[in-house]
Here is the input.
Amino acid sequence: MNSESKHNVNEELLYRYFNEELSASDVELIENWKSESKDNLKFFDETQLLYLDQKAISQVGKEQKQYNTSSAWNQFKEIHFEKPALHIKISYTALRIAASIILLIGTGLFYWIQINSISDVTFTANADKTSLTLEDGSIVLLSDGSSITYPSSFSDQERKVKLEGKAFFDITKNPDAPFVIDLPNTQVQVLGTSFDIDASKSDSVVVSVETGKVWFKSSRDAQVLTPGLSGVFVSSSTDIRSVETPKNSIGNFWRTRTLDFDGVSLSRAVNIISKSYESNIILSGSNFENCKISVRFENEPLENVIDIISTTLSLEVQQHENQYILQGSGCE
Here is the structure.
């Protein structure tokens, strides 16, 4: 190859140069040719890059085998010369762009796999288990038969779940990822707070806040609820009313199992007890409008509650299955 002129330096000669198969004089020839112009140096660098790529591909899974220069050169010719219509001149800029595109595709594919590997989980409360701790540390306490659907892993932008029934939420604060609860015709959004939701009825939703702030919204209305306030949505109106949460809120009795009466009329107390225990209690007699009671019931069975009230006010009790009739002369 000593007769090669500087004008005849080509890819094949460079391939042999890269694989250290040339004589000293040929190596000197290429070194001199490379330093003659920027175009020569650019062509040298691009060819070396292709050579290294071809070598790396051929070495996958064959690290111990010797690299075959002739085979690499034949593959190079097949790609770049035997199909001239497809020949593309490659530059460093193009290669950098191609590498960036491959990186973006790889990153996108990774996240696509991550997103599509996240599955929804549905938990339904029963007598054995009513509480649930979510991935972010938020705690959900559900009434018996209520269910919550949530992703196996929350995204970085949003923590969304779906509730059917009644539940109490104690949400871990995360300003970067709001906690969103989908409900029938409405939605609740918070950053970190605790509150009750009663979505057990088909035509209404009630949200009662204990701590923090809750954004309660429908298709036409939205209310920001703070501690001591409840938002009431009725599907017939689509509006949300903000009201003070009653001291003896029936909505959270399933969770607290506590009723606290302070100078409350007997008729109202009986109505609250009936709804809380999902029973039917009837007052039979007169002058009950003057009867007031002050008592606190905590984790008491219904039979004990009725026994305490009847003993205090000298009432007789008749029971027929889930119905209780309280009879007496009332209060003067």
